[in-house]
Structures are given as C-alpha cells and as structure tokens.
Sequence to fold (209 residues):
Amino acid sequence: MSAPVDISPVTLEQIPANQDRRYQLREIFGNDHPIELELGIGKGRFLIQSAEAHPERNWVGVEWASRYYRLVAERAAKRGLANLRVLRDDAAHVVRDTIEDASIDVLHVYFPDPWPKARHNKRRLVQPPFAREAARILVNGGRVKLATDHEDYAVQMERVFKADPDFRQTFRAIGDEAPEGVTNWEVKFRREGRTIHKFEFERVKRSET
Fold:
C-alpha cells in the first residue's frame, strides 16, 4: 500500500465567505513571476503540463469537484511543482472575492459547464459581472482565454466580453480553425467530433479607459 501524498505544499486553503481578505499570491509563491489562473481544472492536464513547461510562471488552478482537486494536488505534489497551487472552491467566488486587483496575467476558462437548458442559463460562469471582475484582476495587457464546445454559450461568451469596455478581442477561431488544446475535455470533445470555439480578449490599459 502506497504512502499518502502530502499535498499541503501545492494547495491553498479556502478563504471563508465571511472574511474580507484576498490571497497574497506573490508572497505565497515567494517571487514576482507572472501568474496564470485556470478556473475549472478538471483532471489538471493543462495546468500540470503548463507548470512543468513554464517554471518561470506561476500557476493557480480552481476546482470544485473534490475528487479532481485531490487528484491534481497529488500529481502536482509528486512532481514537486513549486510554481503551482490548487484550490477547492467555487470559481465565481474565487474571482470575485479572493483575488487582488491587477494580479493575474492570464485567466483561463476552458469548457465551463454550459448549463444548456434556458432556465439554467443564469448559472453560467461567463456573464457581464464575471467580465467586470476579470477586468479588475487582470494586469494591463493581461488576457482571458475561453473555450467551449457549446455553440450558444460560445455566442454568449463572445458577446459578454466584446460588450465590456475594458477588453478588446485578439483571437477568434471555430471548428477546424481552432488550435488543439490539451485539456481532457477538449481531447474528449474532439474525438466526438464536436465543434470547438475559442476566444481571446486583452485587458486594455487602464489609462485607455
């Protein structure tokens, strides 16, 4: 029987909703390297590969499903990834209440739950208030990268960020034009022949707005 893995070096403790404080990410990592934040990491394929390939950048992943959170934390701990942290929490809460202003260089949102039924659309992560919070936490010139296999959600994602004055669209690709990614969801969806939609938006300089 294998010994339990100590995941404490790669995990962040939740900040309770009743506490008005935010993560000091640069202090947590002990450096001022650029920080990339992925919301909904699933099994962590993108997050772990990115952290291994880019040790000069810091990576934070948020996942609500406890089994995936634990799985990713154990994988990261076994690899000794000092530039990676994972957090079990609600993505919207993390962005809104726990991230400092102008502290994130890239925000990754890949294949979030599309809540396809019309009566559930309000539960989608990408809404105008989310775009406002994304603008707040991103540095000048920071980017938000989005991907989905759900056409209606793709339309909503693009509309929300194009309507926000603090963002300009820098990339748009659909179907065969969309470059391949490595998340487990994308690999699965491509095998099923689903159409992938990808977008990228840049946070305009605050002086420009």
